[in-house]
Specification:
9% strand; 7 strands; catechol O-methyltransferase activity; SAM_O-MeTrfase; alpha/beta; 7-stranded mixed beta sheet; globular; Rossmann fold; TPR-like_helical_dom_sf; 23 helices
Length: 525
């Protein structure tokens, strides 16, 4: 009996190739699907584009897109657009970037997306084009770095079509209800806030969340407002200065832009500080850029499209290209995405947080049960001075969540001795020994002999105790596993993730709070 491959088997094989780094194999399988005239290839196309992007083969990713053959834009296609827009933005492929934005706008007009998104996508594309042209002029005048810190309001020629288009966003698409709340949020801001006034925009955002919370059964407010916003701003203001001429760092990094609420609050509270924010969803990027521009802060905020897993490794080289900063790192980082461990590992790997005094803030660490991350930053052997703060959601003051605030300790005063020694370059240690007076060498030899004479059993016992302290306790490890399983149900739930979150998160949050408290992690009394 001969097995005939179908969409399911092809998708499984392509996914395996992507996980194994076999981008060429994935690309070949996608072409076979096209040759076989299989119709449901959106998921396969997205996976192939991701594989090509991870391998650095961005030209092949663009070829794999096949956007001319896309009759209807699906959720998987949005993932593909997000990856390719990231490649265009990071590689300065401006014409192609604008072309793909226009393709998404056309998808909204043909009913694949909410109609109001067409005006937002057009506005975002026009704004990007205007900014790029302005930056080119400033570079020619050698005023790029000095001029881009100042904000500016988009001209009325751009704002008027935006107002008109978003005003009709109550017309629901026949194919999709996604993003209707985000569009309602944007419409409320445009209707009630003052252009160029960040405080007015922030108040409009909070008012929208409060009003939504008054509706029966509605507790949606996926942004940091109210007590969350106050805690975030207090933490960031307590970090090292990052304004040009004061600090050598590159400002503040936010992971998880959503609609841009936190970004515009931070930029308004930290004048002169550059803010970089990352968002996977290209439609949310367009909404965030629109809100930021309406608040008059697009000159202070960079909103980049792409998954943090792909963008964080690229940030280092981008920061190194900025001649005004001696240190290619951020003075503060705000993590607002369910995936703290992976993001933090990449941040550490690429040394993106200022080593001494850098501030690391993570939101929603209770409702997501970020047990492993909290143990790393707030556990007994953590290299941070950390505090966990209890905050409430803007749409429901009774809904408790936690925000962790951590400050990187200076090696001389905060880290364990082993960490200090490990950070000290061996070459410098050897050179230092060579430069010491010869009369000190006998004393050093004696100390070394004494250390060598310590019982091997005692040294092994100390190492074992240290490993036990650093290891994640079993109860927290189980909580972390439960968190990952819930995350999969919320994110990969075929559009029903919101229902999963509403039905399961309250009980899960109570369980997480009890478990973390028993481990000594939580807000101080």
């Amino acid at each position: 009996m001969k097995a005939i491959p179908n969409e399911i088997s092809y998708n499984a094989a392509i996914s395996a190739c992507e996980k194994g780094g076999q981008w060429l194999g994935a690309l070949t399988l996608l072409q076979q699907m096209r040759d076989a005239r299989l119709t449901a290839i959106s998921q396969a196309r997205s996976t192939v584009i991701s594989a090509c992007s991870r391998a650095g083969c961005w030209q092949d990713a663009l070829c794999a897109g096949g956007f001319s053959e896309i009759a209807e834009v699906t959720a998987c296609d949005l993932d593909s657009f997000g990856i390719l827009l990231m490649e265009c933005e990071q590689r300065d492929l401006h014409s192609l970037e604008l072309s793909m934005s226009r393709r998404l706008s056309a998808a909204a007009r043909q009913g694949d997306l909410l109609l109001g998104l067409a005006a937002v996508l057009d506005f975002s594309a026009d704004l990007r084009q205007q900014q790029l042209q302005q930056q080119q002029r400033q570079q020619q005048q050698r005023q790029h770095q000095a001029s881009r810190a100042a904000g500016f309001l988009p001209p009325q020629a751009l704002l008027q079509p935006l107002f008109a288009g978003v005003a009709c966003s109550h017309q629901i698409s026949t194919r999709s209800l996604s993003y209707h709340r985000e569009l309602a949020l944007l419409r409320h801001v445009l209707d009630t806030a003052q252009p160029g006034d960040p405080a007015s925009v922030a108040e409009a955002l909070d008012a929208f969340g409060r009003n939504l919370g008054l509706k029966a059964g509605s507790k949606w407010a996926k942004f940091a407002g109210g007590s969350k916003a106050k805690a975030l701003l207090a933490a960031m203001k307590g970090g090292p200065p990052a304004a040009p001429g004061i600090s050598d760092t590159s400002g503040v990094l936010e992971i998880g832009t959503y609609c841009g609420n936190s970004a515009l609050r931070l930029a308004a509270a930290l004048p002169g500080v550059r803010l970089t924010t990352l968002e996977l969803d290209p439609l949310l990027v367009a909404i965030a850029r629109t809100l930021v521009a309406f608040a008059g802060l697009c000159g202070a905020i960079d909103v980049w499209t792409g998954h943090s897993e792909l963008l964080i490794p690229r940030l280092k080289s981008r920061l190194l290209e900025q001649p005004t900063h001696k240190c290619a790192c951020f003075s503060a980082i705000f993590m607002d995405r369910w995936g703290y461990d992976k993001d933090w590992a990449l941040i550490q790997q690429h040394e993106l947080l200022q080593a001494a005094g850098g501030v690391l803030v993570a939101d929603n660490v209770l409702t997501t049960a970020a047990a492993s991350f909290l143990w790393k930053v707030a556990g007994p052997t953590a290299s941070f001075a950390s505090q966990v703060v209890a905050v409430s959601e803007v749409a429901d003051a009774s809904q408790e969540d936690w925000m962790s605030v951590s400050v990187s300790r200076r090696p001389a005063s905060g880290l364990r001795q082993t960490s200090v020694e490990a950070a000290f370059p061996p070459e410098l240690a050897e050179l230092q020994q060579q430069q010491q007076p010869k009369q000190q060498q006998p004393q050093q030899q004696q100390e070394q002999q004494q250390q060598e004479q310590q019982p091997q059993q005692q040294q092994e016992q100390q190492q074992h105790q240290q490993q036990q302290q650093e290891a994640l306790p079993p109860e927290l490890a189980e909580l972390q596993a439960e968190s990952e399983r819930l995350r999969q149900r919320v994110i990969v739930a075929g559009g029903s993730g919101g229902e999963v979150a509403r039905s399961e998160k309250p009980a899960f949050t109570r369980h997480a709070k009890a478990t973390l408290t028993r481990a000594g992690i939580g807000p101080s009394d």
